[in-house]
Amino acid sequence: MEKTRGAIKQKGRHCTNGDSGMTRTLLRRQTTVSDRNSDITGVILVGGKSRRMGQDKAFLPVGGRPLVARLVACLSGCFERLLLVGDQGERFHSYGLPVLPDLYPGSSLGGLYTGLYHAETSHIFVSSCDLPFPNAELVQLICSQKKGYDAVIPTTRGGMEPLFALYGKSSLPAMHAALDAGNYRITELLAGLHVNYLVPDLVDKVDRDGKALINLNTPQEYQQCIRSTI
Question: How does DSSP classify residue 133?
Answer without folding.
Answer: S
